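Hi team, as promised in this morning's meeting, here are the two structures we talked about. I've kept the exact order from the run log so nobody has to guess. The first one is mostly here for context; it's the second one we should focus on when we meet again. Sequence first, then the predicted C-alpha cells.
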Amino acid sequence: MSDPTPTLSDAETAVDSTTSKGEEQSLLDGVQVTPDEGRAIFDPANGVLVGYAPRHSTADLDAAVDAAIDAQPGWEALGHQRRSELLLEAADAIDAHAESLARLLSREQGKPLNGPNARFEVGACSAWLRTAASIPLEPDVIIDDGAVHAELIYRAVGVVGAIGPWNWPLMITIWQIAPSLRMGNTVVVKPSEYTPLSVLAMLSVINRVLPPHVLIGISGDREVGARLASHPGIDKVMFTGSTATGRKIIEASAGNLARLTLELGGNDAGIVLPGTDPAAIAEDLFWGAFINTGQTCAALKRLYVHDSIYDDVIDALARVASQMPMGPGLDEGNVLGPLQNRQQFDIVNRLVEDAKTHGGRIVTGGSPATELGDLFYPITIVADVADGTALVDEEQFGPALPVIRYTEVDDAIASANRLDVGLGASVWGADRQAARRVAQRIQSGTVWINSHGGVHPMIPFGGVKGSGYGLEFGVEGLKAVAVPQIING
C-alpha cells in the first residue's frame, strides 16, 4: 500500500503544523472535559497527556438513545437525496479539518502521520462518506406480469448502536455510521475507551452539518458498551472487535432482537506459491502484515511459504523491514508507531517469547524497542515455526509475523483453514489463475490475490466462522443497515 499523502516542503510543513496545532486544540477543547470530570488519555508513544475524555454513564446513554429515537423519523423523512447531500457536506467538513484530526489521532492512537496511517485514515473517512452518499439503491421489481406487481425496497431499521475499536478508530466509525445515516437511521456511537477523543472530535465536525441528535457520541466504559448492546431502544448493533466480545454482544442483544453486524477477530493466512518472485512481492507482503504496526483485524498474521523459496522470501521481507522507520507518530519521518496500549504490547511480547522457546528463529526484532519508548515493539519476523505454536494459532495483533514452511499446497490450504476464524486471507503467485484456484478453497470472507488487506468502499467486506457475520461497504452494506419491505400491488 502506497502513501497517498502529498509531500510538503519544509516551509509548507511548518506553516501547516502551526495552523493545525491551533485547530487541533480547538477540536480537543470542544470534546474534552475537566480533569475532575474525565479520564486521562495519554500518547502511547511518550506517555504525554493528550486530554480528558468524558465519563458518560448508562443514564447518559439512555438519554442519548431517547434523543436518537425522537430524531429518527424526521431524519428518515428527509429522503435519500437530502441525506446524501448532508453526508457530502460532512465529508467536506472532515477534509477541512483533516490535518487537525490526523494529529489528534496520531497522539491518541500512536500511529504516525505518514504512510498508510493517520492522514491516510482521515482521508479514508471522507472517501467512505462520499461513497455511501452516492451509491444508488433502486427498488427491486420482483414480479410485474400484468396481474401482480411486487417490488422490494429498503427502509431504515431505526436507531443504530455503533461500537468501535481502538486500532482504526475514525475510519471504522465511519464504516459504521456512513451507511446507517444514508439509509435514514440515527446513530449512537460508543468509541473505544483507548481512543475516545479523536472519535468525539470527528463526530463534532460531522455534527456541524447534521440535524440535532441524528449522530450522538457516548464516551464510557464497558458497562456503557454492554448497555448499548442490550438497550431496548437500539434496533441494530454494529461492532468491530474481538470474537470474545462479539459473543457477549450476541447474548446481550437477544432480549430485543437487535440486528447485528459483527466484524470480529481474525488470524489471516497468506500462502506464497512456488515460482513466485520474492522481491516482487516483498513490500506488499510487508504492508499486508505490518500496516498500523500490525494492529489491523485483516492484517496478514501467519505466512505459509513454499520450501523452494522460503529463505528468499524471508530475506526479502527482512530487507523491506530494515528500511521502515519506527518512532513517535508526530515525527514526519516515521511510518511505524508503538503498540497502542500495554495489554496489547504484553500479548505480542508473550507470543514472541513463546515462539523462541519452541525453536522459532528470530530474523528481525524479537525484543522490546525500549530505546524508543515503553510501548514500542520492533518489526519481528519469526522463521522455523509450525502450526500449534501460540504465535501461529493466536491472533497477535501486532508487529510479529510467523513464517511457516510447507512443501505441498494442499497442506498449506489445510493449515489456512484449520482455525475457527475467517476474516481475510491471501494467495501470492505468478500464475494468477492458479492462485485463484487456491483462493476458492480457503474459508475466508475475503481472499486477496498478490496483495493483502486492501478494502474498497464499493466492495463488500465481512467474515465467516469466528470472524463474525454481516457485510459492510457497497450496496450490500446499505442493505445491512436497513430492513427489507415488500410493496405488493
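And here is the second protein, the one for discussion:
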Amino acid sequence: MGARGAVALQYAAAGTLTALWGASLPAFDARLDLGAARLGAILMALALGALVAMPLAGRLADRWPGRRLLRLSAPAAALALTGPALAGSARTLTITAIGLGMLLGVLNVALTMQAVAVERAAGRPAMTTMHGFWTLGAVAGGGAVAAGQWAGAGVRVLVVAGAVALATGVAVAGRGLVEVSPSGTPQAGTPTGSASPVPIRATLLVALGLLGAAAFVAEAAATDWAGIHTTRVLGADAATGSFAYTLFLATMTAVRFIGDAARSRLGIGRTIRLAGCTATAGFGLILLAGELHTDESTRVGCALAGWALTGAGIAVVWPVVTSTLGAVGGPARQISAVTTISYGGGVVAPALVGFVAARVSLPVALLIPAALMVAIVVVAPALLAATMRGHRRPVRPHQPVPHPTTPAHPTRTAGELVDTKRSLR
C-alpha cells in the first residue's frame, strides 16, 4: 500500500469514528435519560475538548514527525470511543466526551499534515479526495450502527467492537504513512516538490480561519437543519426530511472525488469561486422553495435540488483552504490555528441558526449561511491568492544549479567548438 492509500484509509477511519459517535447519541440519550439540555452540554464538551487540543496538536506536529503523531492519535481516538459507550451516567459520559474530543482534535491536525505531505510528494492536489474518503467512512459508520440495531445488537456492543476494529485497522495502515519533518515537508528518501516554508501573517491566518468557518457554518446548517426545513417549513414527511440530508451528503462526497481534478484544471481561484456560486445557488433554491405558492411536491423538489447544490459547493472549500496552507509551507502551528478557528464556526453554527430560527423563522436563519457563501465568492479568491503570493517555486530534485561565478554561456575557442560538433555526430 502506498502513502496515498494509507492516508486515505486513515481519513475513512476518522469519518467512521465520527459517525459511530453521532449515530449512537440517540441510544445514549435513551439509556441515560439525558434530555435536550444535557445532550447539548455533552456535545459542547466534545467540541470544546477538540478546540483546546488543536493548537497543542500543532505544536506537537512541529516537534514530532507527522507520521508519529498520527500513528499515536488515530488508535487512541478510536479506543477513546469505548469510554462514552460504557459510561454509566451523564457525568461520566461528559468527561469521556471531553477526552474523545481532545483526541479528535489532535487527529484532525495530524491527518491534515499527512495529506499535505502526500500532496507535496506527489506534486498534485489530493486534499479534496482525502475528505471524500472521510465522508465515505461517515456513511459506512452510520449505516453500520443502524443495520446492527435493526439486527438486534446493542449499541454498546456495536460501538466497542467498532472502536477496537478501527484502532487495529489504523495501526496497521499507519505503517505506510509518509515520514515528514516537523515543518511538514517529506524527509530524505521521499520524492518532494515542496516549497520553502513561508510564514503567514497573523491577520491572514485569521482570515483563512474565518473562510473555513464560513464553510463549516454552511455544512452544519445543512446537516442539522435540512431535514427540519423540509418537514416543518415545506410540510414533507420525516422520510423525505431524512432524504434531504442524505442527498446533501451524497453530492458532497461525489464532488470531493472529482474536486482535485477540477482544481488542477481550473486553478484555485476559479475552483473556490465556482464552489461558492454553486452553494449560493443551492441556498437560493432552498429559500425560494418556502415562498413558492405551488403544490408540495414542487416546493420539496426545489428544496432538494438546493440541498444537492449546497453539498456540491461546500465540498471543496475547506480542502482547498488546507491544501493552500500546505503548499505555502511553514510550521504546523499555522494549520492548527486555522483549523481551530474554522472548527469553531462549526461549533457556533447550530446554536446560532437555532437562536435565529426560534426568534424569527428558520428561512431567515438560513440567510446566514447563504450570506457566508456569497462572501466566499467575493473574498476567497483574493484571500487565497494573497496566501500563495509568497510561495516560491521548488527546485526539482537532482537539478544542477550553476555556480554563480560561472558564465551561463562561456566563451569557447574554435577548436573546442569543432570538438563539440564532432561529439554530437
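Starting points for discussion:
The radius of gyration is 24 Å.
Residues 193 and 396 are 7 Å apart (CA to CA).
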